[in-house]
Please model this.
Amino acid sequence: QVQLVESGGGLVQAGDSLRLSCAASGRTFSSWAMGWFRQVPGKERDFVAAISWNGSVTDYIDSVKGRFTISRDNAKNTVYLQMNGLKPEDTAVYYCAAAWGVGRIYTYTRDYSYWGQGTQVTVSS
Model:
């Protein structure tokens, strides 16, 4: 069982930065691949970024490459999403998720077993 709690969302202006955090419960955090997804009303939840159990492998959607960075601190049971150069189109509810698996990353929602409650990110133009 893994419980995930996101924080760090808010209202910012275009070009600003935010860092999202996702705190995980459980003693086996380092065995889980982690991901960040986002969702706007009326649309499906979309993949944003993923990181392997030890942080050695990461992946991003094209629209955030060079602007967002996913990282994790297994000693703190926390995964982060540093978001720089925010754009209005980044506005969404951001969710972190956990997928069981050592040595790989996952980009589909169906691969993730546990989800946080989400944190709102709003970017004004």
User: Anything to note?
Assistant: The chain has a mean pLDDT of 95.
